[in-house]
Amino acid sequence: MSVGIVLVSHSAQLAAGVLEVAQQMAPGVRIVAAGGMEDGGIGTSFDTITAAVQQADDGDGDGVVLLYDLGSGYLTTETAVEFLEPELGERVTIVDTPFVEGAVSAALTASFGADRKAVVSAALEARTANGPGGVRSVDEM
Amino acid sequence: MSVGIVLVSHSAQLAAGVLEVAQQMAPGVRIVAAGGMEDGGIGTSFDTITAAVQQADDGDGDGVVLLYDLGSGYLTTETAVEFLEPELGERVTIVDTPFVEGAVSAALTASFGADRKAVVSAALEARTANGPGGVRSVDEM
Amino acid sequence: MTCDAGTVVAAVRAAAAAAAEHKTELTRLDREIGDGDHGENLARGFTAVVAKLDASAPETPAAVLKLVATTLISTVGGASGPLYGTAFLRAATAIGDASELDGALVVTGLTAARDGVVARGKAEPGDKTMVDALTPAVQAAAAAADSGGDAAAVLSAAADAAAEGAEATTPLQARKGRASYLGERSIGHRDPGATSASLLLRAMADAAAGGGA
Amino acid sequence: MTCDAGTVVAAVRAAAAAAAEHKTELTRLDREIGDGDHGENLARGFTAVVAKLDASAPETPAAVLKLVATTLISTVGGASGPLYGTAFLRAATAIGDASELDGALVVTGLTAARDGVVARGKAEPGDKTMVDALTPAVQAAAAAADSGGDAAAVLSAAADAAAEGAEATTPLQARKGRASYLGERSIGHRDPGATSASLLLRAMADAAAGGGA
Ligand SMILES: Nc1ncnc2c1ncn2[C@@H]1O[C@H](COP(=O)(O)OP(=O)(O)O)[C@@H](O)[C@H]1O
Ligand SMILES: Nc1ncnc2c1ncn2[C@@H]1O[C@H](COP(=O)(O)OP(=O)(O)O)[C@@H](O)[C@H]1O
Ligand SMILES: [Mg+2]
Ligand SMILES: [Mg+2]
Ligand SMILES: [Mg+2]
Ligand SMILES: [Mg+2]
């Protein structure tokens, strides 16, 4: 049906919150939160990420885009992706982009039925909170 | 003591999660979450933001840096800042930067006792999740 | 026919009724190009406004508008909260302590309201926002006042123009607000905020014409 | 003195004891230039490893290392989990189905482990990471094997070099991992991961020398 999205975070609350905000704008998309360790502590979980990718994959070959919140989350994410069945692993892309902003863009783009490349591209273009204001350089302070 | 940080989000969970992650790296900093509406729903709350800024301000004149998660949150944030006592309002800066990444950088920088300008500058420089990997352009897919 | 504080209260109550009545429609529009909460946001805000009006009796038109402003800012929860809140607040400031509004003062208030929305949200006409309802509303209001219209007539002209402006947002591409995340996909959908602006103006105009019950 | 699966199990149990013993120290180091969890992370991981070893008896050195790898990857929760996990996994693959490790095979395993950490984390020597302990360890191990050292001697040489390498991270500026967020402020603090790498190697070397009880 559409590209799935996995939100890898060090915090269960953070992942759940981003899911909540992104899902509101893209109700039909499979977004799965993979936040925190299994005991609820702060950290990333290989098993949680693995299960999340399997859940986000629609089985139709559209694949899954993973976003992570902080550099050290990438290591667990990449490891989890490497351990997936190759057939699933090869339709998964991990993106280095701002977490919240990338997630909202990715989810919206996925909701239009875009392919994985377009979803990744949208995630990569999301760069700031993007309000009608807020300083963008210290000279504006 | 140090610059305070307010995390304005449409989701209470999202703000609390970012606080959790940023606080872990910067335990001494006054970080206050202002997420969701007062009834717990998704949205931003003028009153919650106002209270958060007052709480984040240390009273020593170091001021407060506000980050918001999505453009529409800026509008409520700016309005709340305009309604503050001018004496407090003038030592507050709203920054347009990626929410999670900016928050971690801002919190860390504030933990070193940096001034508000340096904290804003650090927040603005935080641009991606910054892992040792993750695609940075669709050509890498 | 006078437009005193009581009339303004009646107009605001009518606006609240309109927000409640059109809640589902506004949310449906926002679901197409936003996050699907605009109807709920406004209904929540105006329910709170009515509760405040039930509990107090502001003595001037400006005091009524100020109460509306602060209540919407505190309760709406979406972009439209600070936007409408700023609109009502600027209108209140602009009309000063007048005890009655004539056509010219309504124009003054509406102009300040629109300018407040622009100052807050930085949208220009054509960006597919409530500004696209409010800007023609201000122009039509000014024309109606110039030809001697009273407060109700000016509001009515504003409401008509706002309805056309809202309608005309359909083919536009959004450049501000959440709908702008959709890029070209925002084309072909009517803007929820422009629509609510026209509905609120229509309700207030009708109430003002009714004499402020 | 042989280094069979039993010896490797003993070495891993010793590493687990070292992780528990140095938990507070490692966390303290990580609090200076990270998020203050490295000791807890490793202790959690190695506690799970010991539980797995209590419940099963892997038959080859590689099988032991593989069990350590998958357990650390699943339980550590921080960057060091996939890094150490990848290290143990690559070492297991590199030593193949050998039933005993001689000095040369230990070098093979250590080299693969270090290469795995580099492949995973993209850190170079001097980036103030565990690579700064592992790279000198590999070099010293190779030298010890060249001069005829057995498994225990090779591991001991590796541990000594790792300790020096960890010590030498203090003046470096971090360029990978969380400490890199600190920029110049990471200078003057010893890297937690380099420190844990040296402590784990020391514990394993001592256990291997003891003959694998
Ligand atoms: N920057 C802006 N300037 C003017 N109007 C805006 C702006 N951003 C959003 N709007 C208006 O607000 C409406 C959406 O309101 P609402 O759904 O209540 O808020 P949110 O987008 O936060 O959920 C849009 O349809 C648009 O008319
Ligand atoms: N990209 C990397 N390459 C090599 N080692 C790294 C890398 N990132 C982190 N490390 C090592 O991991 C250690 C931190 O581990 P730990 O505290 O368990 O993880 P986290 O930083 O996720 O909390 C660092 O001290 C460093 O030695
Ligand atoms: Mg909305
Ligand atoms: Mg909303
Ligand atoms: Mg750590
Ligand atoms: Mg950690």
From TrEMBL, chains A, B:
GO MF, one example: phosphoenolpyruvate-glycerone phosphotransferase activity
Keywords for this protein:
Kinase, Transferase
Tell me which species this is from.
Nakamurella flava
Q: Which domain of life is it from?
A: Bacteria
- What name goes with this protein? phosphoenolpyruvate--glycerone phosphotransferase
Cross-referenced Gene3D superfamilies, in alphabetical order? Answer: Phosphotransferase system, mannose-type IIA component (3.40.50.510)
The protein's matches in NCBIfam families, at most eight in alphabetical order, are given as: dha_pts
Subunit details: Homodimer. The dihydroxyacetone kinase complex is composed of a homodimer of DhaM, a homodimer of DhaK and the subunit DhaL.
Q: Which Pfam families match?
A: EIIA-man
Q: What class of enzyme is it?
A: transferase
As for what it does, the entry says: Component of the dihydroxyacetone kinase complex, which is responsible for the phosphoenolpyruvate (PEP)-dependent phosphorylation of dihydroxyacetone. DhaM serves as the phosphoryl donor. Is phosphorylated by phosphoenolpyruvate in an EI- and HPr-dependent reaction, and a phosphorelay system on histidine residues finally leads to phosphoryl transfer to DhaL and dihydroxyacetone.
Question: Does Chloroplast show up as a keyword for this record?
Answer: no
Q: What is its EC number?
A: 2.7.1.121
Query: What GO terms in the biological process aspect are recorded for it?
Result: glycerol catabolic process; phosphoenolpyruvate-dependent sugar phosphotransferase system
Pull one GO CC term from this UniProt entry.
Answer: membrane
Q: Where is the PTS EIIA type-4 domain?
A: 2-135
Q: Which reaction does it catalyse?
A: dihydroxyacetone + phosphoenolpyruvate = dihydroxyacetone phosphate + pyruvate
Automatic annotation (TrEMBL), chains C, D:
Per its UniProt record, what Pfam families does this chain match? Answer: Dak2 (PF02734)
Superkingdom of the organism of origin: Bacteria
Picking any one GO molecular function of the record gives: glycerone kinase activity
Presence of keyword Lipid biosynthesis: no
The chain positions of domain DhaL read: 6-206
Family matches, as InterPro entries: DhaK_L_YcgS, DhaL_dom, DhaL_dom_sf, Dihydroxyacetone_Kinase
What GO CC terms are in its UniProt record?
A: cytosol
PROSITE patterns in the record, alphabetically?
A: DHAL
Q: Which SUPFAM superfamilies match?
A: DhaL-like
Which NCBIfam families does the entry link to? dha_L_ycgS
Q: What is this protein called?
A: Dihydroxyacetone kinase subunit L
- Species source reads Nakamurella flava
